[in-house]
Amino acid sequence: MGFRMQHRNAADTSASGRDRYILLLLKNAGASLGNARGSPHLAVRNGRQAGRSQGSVMSYRMAIGVTVVAALCAALVGAQAHDESKYPDWGGQWKRPRGIGTQWDQTKPLGRAQEAPLTPEFQAVLEASIKDQASGGQGNDPHVTCVSNGVPRIMTATFPIAFVITPAVTYVHFEAFMPRRIYTDGRQFPKNEEPSYQGYSVGKWLDTDGDGRYDTLEVETRNFKGPRTYEGSGLPLHPDNESVILERIYLDKDNPDLLHNEITSIDHALTRPWTVTKTYRRDRNELWQDYNCDEANNHVVIGKENYFLSGDGLLMPTKKDQPPPDLRYFKQTRK
Questions:
Q1: What is the pTM of this model?
Q2: How far apart are the C-alpha atoms of 253 and 305, rounded to whole Å?
């Protein structure tokens, strides 16, 4: 597992300058309020003057408060605009190219044709999955139960995805799964983070052409739980979940409506790192749908067997001569 990125401190230097500016505004506001309290021309000498003076002080304080808030808003808006100018335009909705299915390597068909560099043990897992699916089963595909695809498979973009870029985090939004977070604030990997299907992603922005604007996002993801597969054929990752997934995401040089993602999997089920390049096409006329996998999932997994719920709500087999589930905990009645 020696293939790991070296992280450099990618902290946004503009943030520290913005913070110093905001603190300076607050300090000056505090000094102005102090002067307002002790100013001789606002001194109270009698009841009538007291009323007028107190009103003047309150108005003065409110005016200072409004000024500070306006200045803070201007500072934050200005900083945000500055930050956005440094990052690429990945707006819109990103989809798989037309005619491309959900196979892992987009240039090859599902299953054996992927030519994944699997160890003999995990090549046998794939063969068993393909055989089971040919007989009507679901093989080694855990998504049949609506379990999250996880990383890296989630980046196949079975349904459209979208990127939301901020200086500290880049979010990848999916129709079918919770958002993915890629932290770009210079942090290291946490030591006690709960494992997840998506893992924990740390990235850094690169300006590869030296034009002063970031164009490439490099990402490393670890800390997984499983089971996870690359695609619906059941092409497996190792159940130890010690995968390291590396990505380089960037716009096509000639067509800004194409986004490329070079994904390298480093996994104990492989004999070597495996790199594929996925391409997404941009749709600027965004149309999002509410997708809930559980809502229309008629698959029922009991033990190691996969059954199907018929239209009339009855359990039915998915394979020839499939045994029924064990009903030992149900009271048997005769009709």
A1: 0.72
A2: 48
21 or 85: whose pLDDT is higher?
85
Burial call 41-67: b when 16+ CB within 10 Å, e when fewer: ebeeeeeeeeeebeeebeebeeebeee
Q: 230 and 104 in contact (C-beta within 8 Å)?
A: yes
Residue with token string 């009339």: 312
- The pLDDT, as a whole number, for residue 68 is 47
- Single-letter amino acid, residue 10: A
Average pLDDT (99-108) is 97
Whether the CB-CB separation of 137 and 319 falls below 8 Å is answered with yes
Cβ-contact 270, 117 below 8 angstroms: yes
Pairing between strand 200-206 and 180-183?
parallel
What number of H helices and E strands is found in the chain? Answer: 3, 12
Using 50, 70 and 90 to split pLDDT, how confident is the model at 9?
very low
Summarize the confidence of residues 211-238 as an average pLDDT: 97
Residues 6+ apart with CB under 8 A from 89: 256
